[in-house]
Amino acid sequence: MVNNQSSKLSVGIASFFEVILIVTAIVSMAARQGKNLSLTLLAMFCLILPFIMTRIANSKNIVLPSSFQPFLLIFIFLAQYLGEIKKFYLTFWWWDLLLHALFGSFAVIVALYAMKGTIRKDQETTLRRFTLLKIIFAFCFSIALGTLWEMFEFTGDYLFKTNLVKGGLEDTSTDLLIKILTAFITSVILYFRSLKINR
């Protein structure tokens, strides 16, 4: 039975971020900044998602890395609070690329953990081939998630007139390229690291 625990660190990070967002929501209401208030409420809700995802993973016997909750909590804060509310996306041209790079790399790690206990090596399969298969799957998993996110951004802009795809085709292509690059680098490193550990 898989039991991905919510650590004190994760709860502490979430609580700290929630306090910041509550203060931001109060200030936004006082200043009648409706857009900022909406973004703040959305960020507050998103901070609950890592804990919900962990519970679902436990019910499905899916193994998650111990860094899953802390990483997602910090990622959400960087994207929602600093990126959208504090306008880091506009202030720093590289902010969006940084987040896509982090996501592309971490998704590979999550995929490898999720395969534990799900895919088993046959006696006829060599360790090198089995490791390569897992790495290829993890790489493709990361790219698939990244592509789905880009489709989500496009759909949001098309249906709800949001401004998620800020640079059009160039923005989408650059986001995908940086995800592919970081996912590939992470995959190569983990491939050789796994072979070295299992010698």
Supply the key terms.
2 domains, 0% strand, mainly alpha
Q: Would you give an account of this structure?
A:
- The chain is an all-alpha fold.
- The protein folds into 2 domains: 1-90; 93-199.
- The chain contains 8 helices and no strands.
- Helix 2 packs antiparallel against helix 4 (68-85).
- The longest helix has 34 residues, at 127-160.
- The protein is globular, with a radius of gyration of 19 Å.
- The two termini are 28 Å apart.
Helix content: over 70%
Helical/strand content category: mainly alpha
Taking the sheet with the most strands, its summary is:
none
Tell me, what's the shape?
globular
- Name the average pLDDT: 90
Q: Tell me the domain tally.
A: 2
The fraction of residues assigned to DSSP E strands is: under 5%
